[in-house]
Amino acid sequence: MPDPAPVAPTTARTLLARTARVQREGRAPGLVAGVVRDGGLAWSTGRGDVPEPHADVQFRLGSISKTITAVAVMRLRDEGRLRLDDPLDRHLPGTPLGDRTVGQLLSHLAGASSESPGGWWERVPGGTLEELQLGPEHVVLGAARRFHYSNLGFGLLGELVARQRGRSWADVVTDEVLRPLGMTRTTPRPSGAAARGTAVHPWADVVLPEPEHDAGVMDAAGQLWATLTDLGRFAAFLLGDTGDVLDPTTLAEMTVPAGVDSSVAGWSAYGLGVQVLRVDGATLVGHGGSMPGFLAGVFVDRAEMAGAVMLANTTSGLDPLVPGLLADLRAAEPWVGPAWSPSPAPVPLDVLGVWFWGPAPYVLRAQAGGLLHLGPLPGRAGRASRFLRRPDGRWVGLDGYYAGETLRIADDHLDLATFVFTRQPYDPAAPVPGGVDPAGWR
């Protein structure tokens, strides 16, 4: 793929100004950031003590490692080696979370404790799963009761991946995710040019080195290091350039919110190993990361086909940078989508048009990609969903109220989750639930 076209000089100035302000006011010893379009970095910069080439200096990714772990889990699912509804005990026996499902762990809905037992895993070397000596006290909430971020949960998922493949988690994600994506400068430990993790004193401009170590079984929660170039490639992956690593439909499935974090101001949720944020009307998908000495972020706007990335070697104190870079890019150079062109309808044309749920008018439309959309007339309230035809011929809801439900199309009615839509309001000739008053409208 050719290098992406660079942003305009005025856009570059705006992006640089924001990045410089965040680095200066956040007092990060070093910070690199960039925006991603067309498969790679369209703009990037390094601020502070960052050697050139700034895009080839490793920083620790922290919890962005969780998304890469999730990709490895979803590959196992797509191969049929596990299901998201499988209890953990089926694949990783002997933990107190054995009755919680793989999908719940991916979405932080399993009720696992936020951290692993023992010393703070981010600052002390780690060992094996057996050495954690997990007990009932590490199950802190009921299954699927609420979102509760759990590093421990992803440590368990990393162990699941390792046992399924018969190799270490690091070897699996390197061979199956990182190397196929061309992320050759993403490694479990620092390699080559790498930033030193630091903490900045709250009341003085002095720094303290932070420790770095192998987290053992907790590696899958935050171990990886990467360069800005590699993180930009992962942003392109999140935008849909998945190569042979993951089916794009599986990636789209991962971005559907499952667990909602109600503690965050605004709208914040979690899918299958990815954060989903609603910021100023835009939906951003990706993950943030922090480890002692480092902060990181990768988020993409799939509607605008753009992403932003940042890496810094400071423990805390930076204002959010990635959403701001995306907002600047959206304002200065909004994405221009492809031109509309005709495409064949996936159903006969006489099936499309106005249908009535009781007295309420709805419209069934054909959309690009072989989809059907059922929703209220413009300006009216009501439920709306898109439907995709499965290989067995069923039309199944993709989103909204009817996600997962089957739309059945008959000559005189639509049957959807026991709701019957007719060509006329309460058509007496159609199988309206409860029947229609024989006296009719009056």
Automatic annotation (TrEMBL):
Residue ranges annotated for the DUF7586 domain, each copy included: 347-423
Pfam families, sorted: Beta-lactamase, DUF7586
Domain Beta-lactamase-related: 23-319
Membrane-spanning intervals of the chain: none
Protein name per Swiss-Prot or TrEMBL: CubicO group peptidase, beta-lactamase class C family
